[in-house]
Amino acid sequence: MVRRSAGLVSKKPHRKSRGGCSTCKRKKVKCDEGQPLCGYCSLRKPSCHYPQEPASASPASNATHSNGCFPTGVALHEEAHFDDISMSINPWLIPAVQTASGSLSGLEFELLHQYRTFTWQTLTPRDDEAVVSIHSESFPRLSLSHTHLFYALLSIAASHSNTLAPSKQAAHRALVYRQKTLAEYSGALQNITAENYESVLVTGMLLISLIPLPEDPGTADEETYLVWMYSTLKMSEGLRVLASLRWAAGIEKLSAYPLICRELRTLPPPPIYHSADGCYLYTRVAAVGTTPDHANPPSTYYLPIFLSLYYHHLSLDFFVRVFVFCSFLMSEFLLLVKNREPRALVLIAWWRALAGLAPRGCWVGRSVEKVIEAIGSIIMETADSVTQRAYKDVEHLIRTLKDDGDEAAVKSIFGGTNLCSSPVGQTDTDTFH
């Protein structure tokens, strides 16, 4: 058994190499060239960076290629391979470039390339030109100057790889990059400047996808899912605060603005309904708050979400409104959620159910059902009959979505109202079928 102490690196067989990390070279110790941290650095916790590889090195020798990083059956883009020489790679990534954290290693190059060509598609239902450009070009380029964003992209890609091809090595890699992201991001929050503001805002947005789901959906209890749900809401609150710093001072000029804008269309007035007794049913809603600092109560914003679904069906505008809804939630409402107030919980259940209509995204999947089930247990035990009835409508929506698909689920929301698949002014590219 190899003996290891706090002050000595274990004596393992070592081949002579010029590929050791900068710390080991500076300390004049042998480096085992472990990725992302070598053995020496993992014991002492210093920064572990590898020097730039020679330009003549073969790409195949600098990175470990694995077809297991890509799932089958994804229709958006053809399967990508890092060793495909026909694949376009931006000039600013060739050769291995200098980043704010040092030289880009082979592993980091692979993960960054994976994010910009494939992984980002799992985070959003949108694939319009602006969003594709932001994720594949703007974010990777911006990350080279800001370590918090750089490690966030690597962490998301590493987590995605571990989801597709689980292994202890992949899980450890994802954990290490997540820890690096949080450490760098915490430091950046202490000194937000005009130069790093956008990278901090983007990292805050991406961190929501890095909140780990319960490891085993089959055994995780309801409390675990409620805690996870509340964590995502609190992270969104932080994003709202960050956005408020520049909301009235040119935030629309940021390259990331298409991802945080709150609507793509101006909605027409809500329809007037007739009840069974002949009375008019019309809900008057105050004007939508123009800034996150002065947002209206959460119930105000459900009307625009439902109106978008009613008039424009499953369009990009609807998904944008669902995605940004939690950025409207104020601390007072989040306190009600934390205290498990039934009426607040049923609003969150509706939001989660509507998010489940998206074809993909970090907030969809089995987690939606588990959160709604956990909320239901509380509501059916403690809520009044009106709140319970509202929750049963959520259950009906989820059940219809599973059994009959999204078209039937949308119609069930409006009690069978005849919805147009392509309303006036809506193109085929705006609608998800």
UniProtKB/TrEMBL annotation:
Protein name: Zn(2)-C6 fungal-type domain-containing protein
Transmembrane helix recorded as keyword: no
Compositional bias annotation for Basic residues: 11-21
Pfam families: Fungal_trans_2 (PF11951), Zn_clus (PF00172)
CDD domains: GAL4 (cd00067)
Region (Disordered): 1-21
GO molecular function, one term: DNA-binding transcription factor activity, RNA polymerase II-specific
Annotated organism of origin: Didymella exigua CBS 183.55
InterPro entries from the UniProt entry: Fun_TF (IPR021858), Zn2-C6_fun-type_DNA-bd_sf (IPR036864), Zn2-C6_fungal_TF (IPR052400), Zn2Cys6_DnaBD (IPR001138)
Top-level taxon of origin: Eukaryota
Domain Zn(2)-C6 fungal-type: 20-50
Keywords, sorted A to Z: Nucleus
